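re the bet — no i am not wrong, look at it urself. input seq straight from the record:
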Amino acid sequence: MGLFNKSKREQIPKSLDQGLAKTRESVIKRLTRAVAGKAKVDDEVLDNLEEALISSDVGVATTLRIIERIEQRVAKDKYLNTSELNDILKEEIMQLLTESQAVDLSEWTLPDVKGPYVIMVVGVNGVGKTTTIGKLAYQFNKMGKEVILGAADTFRAAAIEQLEIWAKRAGVSMISQKMGSDPASVAFDTLKSAVAKNADVVIIDTAGRLHNKINLMNELTKIHNVMKKVLPEAPHEVLLILDGSTGQNAFEQAKQFTAATEVTAMALTKLDGTAKGGVVLGISDQFKIPVKYIGIGERVEDLRLFNRNDFVKTLFSLKA
């Protein structure tokens, strides 16, 4: 049974509330514990809050920034009820995301560029890279755009096969070569085909290897340079895919890939199966690179546009 042959009930996409349920339950439980028995926000509450945020994989540096902001609020207002803490926390995190260049996306759109809009996708194996590419292709195809995928992860036969399956599911074209071929050659052929066909979107998959950062950097640079021979502005976007369920390991992967290439956007996957969704906040803050997409389920529609306002409100919602 393929992805699109599931029952109608199974095809209903998850709401953001459902997708973040595990993380929200964990966060709220920790926050409730942090203020238990306290009438006002004092040093003990702040210490407990710090522990709660770090335990939710927000990250140490980002957590300390949040705590510092709340301390300033406490010093300014002299007295804050613990009942106000949740709203203050949401306000300060929203402000933090604003400063971190987070973007609020409410509808699927494409920038107006000359020729096809080219997205180069990077990330280690197993983070949901191929699945995310397929879901992106589906959404763009749904908009009426002609999409072409480039199978430039030529080091694994499975990668090419998986991308081909997703291309068929999404109803889009794919350019590939045999396993072991030069990835840059695949990217070059894909762009040439896209330009010839007057396609709207090109999504290039790349190998997910981190064992040798120098080789990775050289490979991605080569793909960059080859694409520019066909389309000088390409790639318009370098999208890093991270597995949100890995928590702090996602931070390390972000460090590696941002050092290897100029990442311009990120997608965090598998948030529905984890209590570590706080990692989205830390990564947005630490890397100052917009999170554009979040994965909150297996269905094709469960790749959602990231909206900081909706995300923070949902994550810190006190409802059961």
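see?? Residues 1-10 have pLDDT under 50 and may be disordered. told u. also The two ends are 35 Å apart (CA to CA). so pay up
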